[in-house]
Amino acid sequence: PAAPLEKRDYCIKELIETEKNYIEALNMITRDFMRPLKDVLTPEENEVIFKHIKELADTHAGFHADLHKACLAPQQQQMRISDCFLRWKDKFIVYGDYCSNLPRAQEQIDELCSKKQLVNQCVLNCQQKANDGKFKLRDLLSVPMQRVLKYHLLLKELMKNTAETHEDYHGLEKALKSMLDLAHYINEVKRDNETLQIIADIQASITDVDLPQNMELKDYGRLLKDGELKIKSHDDNNKIKNRYIFIFDRMMLMCKSTKGEQYIYKSSLALCDYRLENAPVNSRMATRYYWFLVHIEKKTAYTMYAKTEEMKKKWIEAIEKAMDNINPSIAKDTDHQFAMHTFKVPTYCSDCNKLLPGIFYQGY
């Protein structure tokens, strides 16, 4: 009789069987939805809804084949389970873009189905034919995101049931770190895409915004904080003005609020040209919760007033974070000059060999 399966064997079996099911789901999306809907969707709509699906189906067919090879008898083995994950990680990077595009794909389906009767009927027919209407297309498109974010959990379970003396134990450790790194990267890409949309919306809401040629707000980094402050410019007759402030990594934007989250641009400060000074504790104005932004060449200065001590603390933290992002404190004792940089393609850190998370201003 066959030897009883160990827990480790069950983990491997689950990994391979669920991978097979996943490939079938990808093929079903291609066969039962992508092809039939091609006739009723524009090329642009098709690209948004089914972005990367074909590529993922091809990638996972190869990954699944490698997993099978890793499960052959020891004398026939060409690779180990851990090798499969390490070998295919770079192909899985596309999930960052896939998961970021997913909400847009689902919105596109909902919008087309509500506005175009022909598309709606075709989608319903496809769903009925594919799985008796059990799953909607918009739900099936979530399956790839669920799958890729589950790999580190499957590997964790496999490691738990693998003896430290096993020949693949240390390989599995590397594979687990690799899939955790991938999951972190995907989540950060998703978050960055949401951030870029917020920044684009902010730029559209500001009239007369004065940026250098070919520059957009996103070129000044991530939005760290926004809200209302009272501000006094020391070269402006000492008048205190209400301003709506946006703090980005490289810049502070000062605007005047108008109705309905619309703003009029007033001025901007390059944060690398300023230093932050807290108000003296014994100041008679201490109850006003204020601080200073002073030009490093003392050309000008601003006094900024928050409503509460807690709000003041949060504003100062955001400004300090922005200043540290521009000039990292850990670099001050070196002769290196750091400049925040956007890497256009997925890039690994040369020091820790992890993916630089996100899609803009990921490193220096």
TrEMBL record:
One of its GO terms (cellular component) is cytoplasm. The keyword Transmembrane does not apply. It comes from Ixodes ricinus. It comes from the Eukaryota. Residues 222-324 form the PH domain. InterPro entries: DBL_dom_sf, DH_dom, GDS_CDC24_CS, PH-like_dom_sf, PH_domain, PH_Vav, PKC_DAG/PE, SOS1_NGEF_PH. Residues 7-189 form the DH domain. GO terms for biological process: cell migration; intracellular signal transduction. GO terms for molecular function: guanyl-nucleotide exchange factor activity. This is Putative rho guanine nucleotide exchange factor vav3. Keywords: Guanine-nucleotide releasing factor, Phosphoprotein, Repeat. Residues 335-364 form the Phorbol-ester/DAG-type domain.
